């Protein structure tokens, strides 16, 4: 049979179990409330994430649009410069066909100078030979040389 001690022991164990169940129930309620708060926060963050993704997509589209506009502007500037260079080159070609070409090559100028020096030397030698044959003085030769130099300077 059951004794009073056994019933008291059973009663304490039941009271302890009831207390434990009440504590666990309270804890469950607190955890459910925390979970609801966390779920709300998750929902808010997901909404913000969607907003950020939409904003990022719009930003990317605007940046791409700006880059395309910049590229189009650069292309138009490049085309303008190219057409100006072509027009300038064609104008220069037309101008060059209408103008008598001057010897601008330094080698040609040097050659011209050499030819003139050679001609001057030959003329001087001829004058000296002529003076020797005719018997004229060197002073007259020098005067003739200076006159010849003046004539050559004109050309």
Features:
3 helices, mainly alpha, 155 residues, 0% strand, rod-shaped
Structure overview:
With 155 residues, this protein is mainly alpha-helical. The chain has 2 domains: 17-95; 105-155, no CATH class. The chain is 91% helix and 0% strand. The protein is built from 3 helices and no strands. It has helices at residues 4-98, 106-134, 138-154. Helix 2 packs antiparallel against helix 3 (138-154). It is rod-shaped.
Secondary structure layout:
Blueprint: H1 4-98, H2 106-134, H3 138-154
Helix pairs in contact: 2-3
What is the gist of this entry?
The chain is an all-alpha fold and 155 residues long.
DSSP helix count?
3
List SSEs in N-to-C order: HHH
Distance between the termini: 155 Å
Number of domains: 2
Radius of gyration: 57 Å
How many strand segments?
A: 0
The percent range for strand residues is: under 5%
Q: Name the poorly predicted regions.
A: 98-103
Characterize the biggest β-sheet.
none
Coarse structural class: mainly alpha
Question: What general outline do the C-alpha atoms trace?
Answer: rod-shaped
Mean pLDDT: 77
- Give the helix proportion (percent range): over 70%
